[in-house]
Structures are given as structure tokens and as C-alpha cells.
Amino acid sequence: MKNVKIIEVKSELGAGTRGASLGIDALKIACLDAGSDYFKRFNSIEVPNDNHVLFDKNLFPFAKHIDSILVTLKSISSTIAQTFEFNMFPLVLAADHSNAAGTIAGIKAAHPDKRLGVIWIDAHSDIHSPYTTPSGNMHGMSLAIALNEDNKDCKINDLDPESRFFWRSVKKVGVEGPKFSYDDLIYIMVRSYEVPEDYLMKKHNIKNYHFDEFNQKGAENIANEALARLKDCDLIYISFDVDSLDSKFSKGTGTPVETGLTVEQAKELCACLVKDPRVCCFEMVEINPTLDTENTMAENAFEILEATTNSLVERLGKVEKVSA
Fold first, then answer.
1. What is the CA radius of gyration of the chain?
2. Is residue 324 predicted with pLDDT exceeding 90?
3. What keyword terms does UniProt attach to this protein (predicted)?
4. Which of 43, 45, 232, 243 has the most Cβ atoms closer than 10 angstroms to its Cβ?
């Protein structure tokens, strides 16, 4: 379909466990095993990556490989912005979740005057900064980058001047300053976070749909409620981390967590969300087939991806017919 563009991002520089760069190929194998023509239906482009630096010594203990991640985020941002220039919907398949900061930057670069909402479907809140991180892994910093957040109130790390320079630089990719506001951030299934992240979640009263509320209301009602909470936003970006699934469905990811979504719940949730005409980008991340001997994670993820894309294509097809 001409109006959907698959953006492949194989950079895994932000992850703590190696192997997420193989996630997109694992999805393609799952597609073949399912007898689907999914990857023949859409044009795709691969963003260059610098995964070779993983063999080099890391120089930034509190923001690992941030110098190369900066280059990657710039490449992602420009690719996303260009996709919008061609009036296409960017459907992003990415390795680790740090890449989402580049996606958000690209959306904002293409639409600087639009109010952006973010629906973050994930086991983790990903709102650490180099000042608060216990690990230095930047896939836990993607939202802090996009929100221009240092969280020095909870500072535990002292950064050297070069680290501070690169941290300021990654926050400026796309446009300077915050790409969206805390008021326009919604978490779904976030259940693993540290004290500094909990501090920000409470400080900004970020809505988080936990397991019990999700099960009580159901996927469709949660989707509609989340979209209604973002009623003042012009555009909405959806980020789906496969570890939002319960760990029994998501062994092939770097940081699986118990008490999450079922595959069917995730399919229904994402398919409902992308029906909203304000949804301008969908991203799926963190499939790691090296942790999964049967490729089950990718098979589950592909099921979700195909259902979501079918719902999106139906929406876009209706728009095309009206335009014609």
C-alpha cells in the first residue's frame, strides 16, 4: 500500500542485552511462517546504524554510546520527517526503545506547530536521564530525551562535561526543547520503574493504565478513554514495546515483566488506537530473538503488527476514497 512506509531501525546501542538488532529479521521470518505477504505489501527503508561501535570501549558510563546514539537519532528523525513530506504514514519497526526519541523528534520536526500526544505501551516508564540511571542504558531514557527532562531533583550520577554536551545534544534533535508535554503522555501497562521515575510520574500525575484497570474495562474501552484524554492533541504517536505483554508471551525481549497484556488484548488495543485519524505514527520495539529459541516472541509480535496494520490500512483507505 502506497501510503504506509515501513521504517526499519536496527540500532541496538541503547539496550542492555544484545540481540534486538535481529528483531526485524525475526518478524520477517514469523511473517513467512504465517504464510503472509505483509512485507511485500509496503515500501520500506532501513535507517543506517552504528552497531559496530558495540565492539569498542564505551566512554560514557551513565549514557552508554550516547555519541553514536546521537547520530542514529538524527538519522531516524530526518527519515521520519521526510516520510511525512511524502504524505505517508511511518510504521516504525525498531530494535531498542531509545530509537523512539528519534521518531518523536522527526514527528515534531515535520509538525512543529502541532500538539503531540504520546501513548506509551510498555512495561517500563523509560523516563530516566543520565543523572538518575542505575544502568546507563539509553533505552530507559527515550521519553526523558523527548521531554527535555534531566530530573536533577533525583540526581545520583555526576556527569563529565562531554557526557553533558551529548545529553544536551540528543535533546535538541528535531527541534529544541520538549517535543510534547507531560499532560499529553499516557502509559499503558507500565509496571517496572525506579524511584526517580516514580517521582516524575507522581509529580506530573501521568495516567497509567495498570493490569487490573485494563482487565476490568477491556481493550476497546481503554483505547477510547486514552484517546479521549488526548482530546486537545492534534497528532498522536503510539509506541508499543513487546515487553508490555505478560512475560509468558514475551520471553524474547531484553526485560520481560510479569502481569502484562495477552497477545489478544494487545491486538485489540493497538487496532482500536490506530483507527483514530490523529494517530500519525506507530512503532514496535524490543524483539530479541537471541533470547527465544522458538521465535515465539516475533510470532506473537507479528500477529499484533498485522492486526494493527490492517486496522490502519482500513482507516487510510476510507480517507483515500473520500479524497477521490
1. 18
2. no
3. Arginine metabolism, Hydrolase, Manganese, Metal-binding
4. 243
**Alpha-carbon distance 223 to 242, whole Å?**
17
Q: Is 96 helix (H, G, I), strand (E, B) or coil?
A: coil
Q: Which amino acid is present at 150?
A: D
pLDDT-based confidence at residue 1 (cuts at 50, 70, 90): low
> CA-CA distance, 93 to 133, in Å (whole number)?
25
Q: What is the pTM of this model?
A: 0.96
φ, ψ of residue 190 to 5 degrees: the values are -70, 125
**pLDDT given for residue 323 in this prediction:** 47
Would you call 17 exposed, middle or buried from its count of C-beta atoms within 10 A (0-12, 13-18, 19+)?
middle
Residue 49 pLDDT exceeds 70: yes
Domains of the chain: 4-323 (3.40.800.10)
Whole-angstrom CA distances from 111 to 71, 179, 249 are 21, 10, 36
Cell output for 23: 528483531
**How many Å separate Cα 172 from the centre of its chain?**
18
One-letter amino acid of 314: E
